[in-house]
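User: Could you go from structure to sequence for me? I need the amino acid at each position, not a summary. Structure tokens:
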């Protein structure tokens, strides 16, 4: 299981990213919002680009925006491992997935807690990852939604039945206790659990231990 560390809860973005870069987290998770699809803390792409030039960590990008296309191009020029956008954008989903792949970047679809899982089915053979939101998208520090466990199991079954290698990532309320409940998960996104501590490495170590990785 890989760990993507989010800086969403950091008061000082630059300092937070620098501290995350010094940990052994697998990726830095980037939540980008434009205030139209979901409300939440917004970051300037221009500012983020300047900061990311100083980290060697690969980026795990989550676009919570109405029109992913223009942001896909911008993040393709950074050290990006994967770009995921919300299935709730509805328009041009296949074109945007193809665009991400055209840059040699892994692509994924994120699904909110109140969205029907069946909506993922038409895109399973076109994506590398599904990001299951285990909180309401937009704000960090929320409690893990227990119903997410059954949703993850259903998504895993859907992938198995299609005989595909699609990874499952989970974002929201991840800590050293909730991570123990996650089966069939290849990656977790952890934010405030990590960044609320002075030493960012210590909670990451706890996550790995709880997941049986250490």
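Assistant: Here is the amino acid at each position, in order:
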């Amino acid at each position: 299981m890989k760990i993507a560390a989010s800086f969403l809860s950091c008061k000082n973005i630059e300092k937070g990213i620098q501290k995350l870069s010094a940990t052994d987290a697998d990726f830095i998770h980037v939540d980008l919002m434009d205030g139209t699809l979901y409300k939440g803390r917004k970051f300037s792409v221009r500012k983020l680009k300047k900061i990311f030039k100083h980290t060697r960590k690969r980026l795990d990008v989550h676009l919570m925006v109405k029109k992913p296309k223009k942001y896909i191009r911008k993040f393709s020029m950074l050290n990006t491992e994967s770009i995921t956008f919300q299935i709730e954008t509805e328009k041009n989903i296949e074109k945007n997935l193809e665009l991400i792949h055209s840059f040699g970047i892994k692509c994924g679809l994120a699904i909110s807690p109140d969205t029907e899982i069946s909506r993922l089915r038409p895109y399973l053979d076109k994506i590398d990852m599904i990001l299951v939101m285990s909180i309401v998208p937009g704000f960090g520090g929320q409690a893990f939604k227990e119903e997410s466990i059954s949703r993850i199991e259903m998504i895993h079954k859907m992938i198995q039945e299609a005989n595909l290698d699609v990874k499952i990532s989970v974002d929201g309320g991840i800590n050293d206790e909730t991570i123990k409940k996650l089966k069939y998960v290849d990656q977790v996104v952890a934010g405030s659990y990590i960044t609320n501590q002075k030493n960012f490495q210590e909670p990451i170590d706890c996550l790995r231990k709880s997941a049986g990785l250490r």
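One structural detail worth keeping in mind: The chain has a mean pLDDT of 91.
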